[in-house]
Amino acid sequence: MSMNVAIDGPAGAGKSTIARKVAETLDYVYVDTGAMYRAMALYFLNEGIDASDAGAIGKACDDIEISIAYEEGQQKVLLNGEDVTGRIRDEKVGNMASVTSAYGCVREKLVALQRKLAARENVIMDGRDIGTCVLPEAQVKIYLTASVEVRAKRRYQELEKKGETCRLDEIEQDIRKRDERDMNREISPLRQAEDAILVDSSDMTIDQVVACIVSLCKEER
Ligand code: DC
Question: Whole-structure pTM over 0.85, yes or no?
Fold first, then answer.
């Protein structure tokens, strides 16, 4: 049976950075499920579909094919065969993904793909509903969080590094809104699974969090 590690938590908690490093250390495949929701959101944006138009979203779901490929260990997301990895990272796509990920048709499609990937490989998968819904049998479940202020500051520094102009108060407001949506939607809201270990990274370095998760995984092997 393959080893499955689930990492859930709110936006900006550092899930992807940490999951990538744990995957490298343990030679697992890293699966970034947020990227899949973002790729679907990109399609809706490109097609000019209104996020509140359930009919249009449902119809579009039938026209979308999401797949995953790996190039030198890096995950690539393909939207109808086209690599969109470089186009899904901006805030507009992230916010659209937070809204459209509430639709059942969107989730069904992606959860099926995520389960297929986890069945055939040792994976570390990050998202919002991995421990509660996608992989309830995962051997290790982590709920990774940090205070809103710390998450906003990290995102601010990340954007600054990329040379983008941004405001800390706006980022913080954005994160609060995203938390609110992700935690309160009807289907698979973000919450800590009962058997997940809570890791608050507010006062931890990346390496400390990685070491903590690696040791939990080694105990389970
Ligand atoms: O982790 P991220 O910021 O790339 O995710 C973008 C949005 O996708 C997030 O706000 C909610 C949604 N998402 C989800 O609903 N379930 C997941 N497993 C992963 C992401």
Answer: yes
